[in-house]
Write a structure and sequence with these properties.
Elements lengths: L31 E7 L18 H8 L2 E3 L2 E2 L5 H10 L27 H7 L3 E7 L28 E5 L10 E3 L2 E2 L9 E3 L29 E2 L2 E2 L3 E3 L11 H15 L5 E6 L20 H23 L6 E7 L42 E4 L7 E3 L3 E2 L3 H9 L15 H4 L10 E4 L5 E4 L3 E4 L7 E2 L4 E2 L7 E4 L15 H15 L9
Parallel strand pairs: 1-12, 1-13, 2-15, 3-16, 4-5, 4-12
Antiparallel strand pairs: 2-14, 5-6, 6-7, 8-11, 9-10, 13-14, 17-18, 18-19, 19-22, 20-21
């Protein structure tokens, strides 16, 4: 197990051309960095990206003060692989066991892996992860003792502090875990978790629907917590259970406390919100306010969390020396397992914006996500069409901070700092995207090629086109952002070139030219 490096004192770091005299007087050289990482929020879910049926003013303000990206991507169309790739700089499809994780998954990012948090450590930062985790805890699946210190945990991969949901809101155990230990646990009421079978006498959504306040539309019919049936079985731990309508307040409060406690030294905060992921239970302050049911209400709730973080930075005098990056782990889904009226009340709202597909999909709405970078005084407000990916955050910020990463670290992450700062409007020459069935596609500025793959073309449970097809697909990204016309037969030479490039990336021969 790797040892966590000692926290270093504040040091002067090279800023890749950002000379010391450019910093305002009295400002420390090292900028704080906050990632606000939304869950299941699509490109079209935010008013800064053109949504007319929802108003997210705090995100709008962030976009007006920074670079708003129109061609930014997560590395995968589902949560666990997207987060794995972002934190490690490695495409998740290269590594087995990085699919959507159960709540009793062992640590998917092993302690020996170099992570984004490790990189910040080397730069002298204090680090924290607050919010949804969904990357496993403990050593092996199903072997955790949730009543003791879970090991390994986030402290073993570079985070000094963590306050997390073990998996997702719809998976047991429905508890917060702080620094590897369940919060508010009564030792006389221990927690038991199983993803194999129920515990004797425990009600489930399937067998006891009369106990439910929210009913599942598909799946999600096992243990009942707060009147909502989840995935997986759980017994005990009553004092530790979260209250669904309080999750946003709890996590936002912890994020603010971390900022307040570390305002005098450089910090990195990974703030992963839960809001739009099912089950959607907005706080009473937001319930009924959007006119689109709980899914719309939690978008307002997410916007509130963004505003609270930004207000805290301003109050503490940190807003001009903090890089804030806002994005989402994957594209949107409307019905993802609960009958919460999200489909019926969607109206004219298009969560994926102009793009086809959604969460789970190879089409653009699966991975083309909202993304904003704000760094007051250093980044000019603008809109960028550069092709960028969260996979590159680790290499790009390492370059900004002057950190030389180990040779085997972040193997797929590349330094596109100028693109992230709005100075390079091209970005990556190409990017590999991954859908829920691990079928891959490759996108360039002009083209999108989806390789032939197994799986149904339409996921009826969630109402989303998957992009799965036994035939190759090719779309022109200049003329057909909605991926409506497959032109693979019309341009076989482009299909051949992109298929060869994708094969080369799979084989680690990433230097094969596109031209």
């Amino acid at each position: 197990m790797k040892s966590i490096p000692l926290i270093l004192p504040l040091i002067t770091l090279p800023f890749s051309g950002y000379a010391e005299e450019q910093q305002p007087a009295g400002m420390p050289q090292s900028p704080n960095v906050i990632f606000i990482y939304a869950d299941d929020i699509g490109y079209g879910d935010l008013s800064c990206n053109g949504a007319k049926t929802i108003c997210t003013p705090n995100v709008e303000r962030l976009a007006a003060e920074g670079v708003r990206f129109t061609n930014a991507h997560s590395a995968a169309a589902t949560s666990t692989p997207a987060r794995y790739a972002m934190l490690t700089g490695e495409y998740a499809w290269r590594r087995q066991g990085t699919g959507i994780a159960d709540g009793d998954a062992g640590m998917i990012i092993r302690p020996e892996r170099y992570t984004l948090a490790d990189m910040f450590h080397e730069a002298g930062y204090v680090t924290a992860a607050i919010g949804k985790w969904h990357l496993g805890l403990g050593d092996k699946k199903g072997t955790q003792d949730w009543n003791k210190l879970l090991s390994p945990n986030l402290s073993d991969i570079g985070f000094d502090y963590s306050y997390i949901m073990a998996a997702t809101g719809d998976r047991v155990p429905c508890v917060f875990v702080e620094n590897g230990q369940v919060v508010n646990l009564d030792p006389d009421d221990p927690i038991y978790v199983s993803y194999q079978k129920n515990f004797p006498g425990e009600p489930t959504g399937k067998n006891n629907p009369e106990l439910l306040t929210m009913h599942p539309s598909h799946g999600h019919n096992q243990s009942i917590v707060n009147g909502i049936s989840r995935i997986g079985f759980m017994k005990g731990g009553k004092s530790a259970l979260w209250k669904d309508d309080q999750i946003a307040d709890e996590l936002t409060g912890k994020a603010i406390s971390f900022i307040e406690q570390h305002k005098d030294r450089p910090f990195f905060l990974y703030f992963a919100t839960q809001d739009a992921h099912v089950p959607r239970v907005p706080n009473a302050r937001f319930a009924g306010k959007s006119g689109m049911g709980p899914r719309g209400d939690v978008l307002l709730q997410f916007d509130w969390s963004v505003g609270e973080v930004m207000n805290t930075l301003k109050r503490l005098g940190l807003d001009k020396n903090t890089i804030v990056i806002l994005s989402s782990d994957n594209g949107p889904v409307v019905d993802d397992g609960y009958r919460d009226m999200a489909v019926e009340m969607l109206g004219d709202h298009k969560p994926g914006g102009p793009f086809r597909g959604g969460k789970y999909s190879s089409y653009e709405a699966g991975t083309r996500v909202p993304c904003i970078l704000r760094w007051s005084g250093q980044v000019e407000p603008s809109v960028s069409n550069a092709l960028v990916c969260q996979l590159d955050w680790i290499a790009s910020i390492a370059s900004l901070l002057g950190v030389e990463m180990p040779a085997d670290a972040a193997p797929d992450s590349e330094n596109y700092l100028d693109a992230w700062l709005g100075k390079d409007l091209k970005g990556r020459p190409c990017l590999v995207e991954q859908n829920a069935q691990n079928n891959l596609s490759i996108i360039t500025e002009e083209w999108k090629y989806i390789e032939p793959g197994k799986g149904v073309p339409f996921n009826r449970n969630v109402g989303i086109e998957t992009g799965n097809s036994p035939d190759p697909q090719l779309y022109n990204m200049y003329d057909d952002l909605g991926e409506k016309e497959n032109v693979a037969e019309k341009y076989p030479e482009v299909v051949e070139k992109l298929a060869a490039k994708l094969a080369a990336i799979k084989d680690d021969r990433v230097g094969l030219p596109l031209e």
